[in-house]
Amino acid sequence: MLGAIEAGGTKFVCAVGRAGSVVERAQFATGDRPEVVLAQVVEWLREREQQWGRLAALGVASFGPVELDDRSPKYGFITTTPKRGWAHTDVLGPLRRAFEGRPIGFDTDVNGAALGEGRYGAARGLEDFVYVTAGTGIGGGAVARGRLLHGLLHPEMGHIPMPMLDGDTFEGVCPYHGRCWEGLCSGPAIERRTGRAAEELAPDDPAWDLTARYMAHAFVTLTCVLSPRRILLGGSVRKGGRLGESAFFEAMRRHYRAALAGYIQAPELDAGRIAGFLVPPDLGDNAGVCGALALAEDAWGAQQA
Ligand code: ZN
Questions:
Q1: How far apart are the CA of 181 and the centre of ligand 1, in A?
Q2: CA-to-CA distance for 3 and 25, rounded, in angstroms?
Q3: 2-112+285-304: CATH homologous superfamily?
Q4: Which CATH topology does 126-280 take?
Q5: How far apart are the CA of 170 and the centre of ligand 1, in A?
Q6: pLDDT per residue as tens digits for the range 140-185
Q7: Distance of CA 176 from the midpoint of ligand 1 (Å)
């Protein structure tokens, strides 16, 4: 049995399971005192060990930014987050002490979700794809040749610069960049633009079409840089509020093909097949925790090797 922890900005979801199936799960409010929620997580997992036996490995998929360089003394830390109480928090340390000798995989929440969708969800069987989530913020994980893309830090796709569409004067909400992708298309951006939460926005509100066009531009950028075989869009914004998920995806696909302008030719991008290229995720609310399970599996596999 493996242990999984999805560390989110609002809640921590813990689970025990194996091979992508969650056997038991629980959640705790993230709050502003890391030591409290981390102690709750440790206690819950230890109780599960009474029932299921010693956990073979753990996986942690965390909100960030996080330190992923395992040579750094801050490996496993949440670093510069604006979230109150959480800047420079050692997330991995307390787990290592509580589950000594067990391998623990650690990555960002979106990288975890990408791994989970690749192994058990909408990107199963693909070696090259991107998973994006748009909700409170926007983040993305890229898988290339079957491996999660890391680097200097980890990708921060939500902060790519965006073009200014004709007639749009919205200044964006990103405190760092204003009009980056997250600044234009996150839930808070839609709310600031319209004065309404995305879930309550009328189907014919022009903000939907604008958001779909900006999303399409960002997907074109990702396509040009990473050449994914599929792009998954998760998170709450994808549901399209009262417009509905399928209409919102149709609009994004149409604008995506228009923005590509026929330059990149592949059968997967044809009008008849684009619905299989830009897709919602499969794992829904379990995406994060299944991703953490996949990280645990990989950590266990690496230890065996
Ligand atoms: Zn930004």
A1: 7
A2: 10
A3: ATPase, nucleotide binding domain (3.30.420.40)
A4: Nucleotidyltransferase; domain 5 (3.30.420)
A5: 14
A6: 999 999 999 998 888 999 999 999 999 999 999 999 999 999 999 9
A7: 5
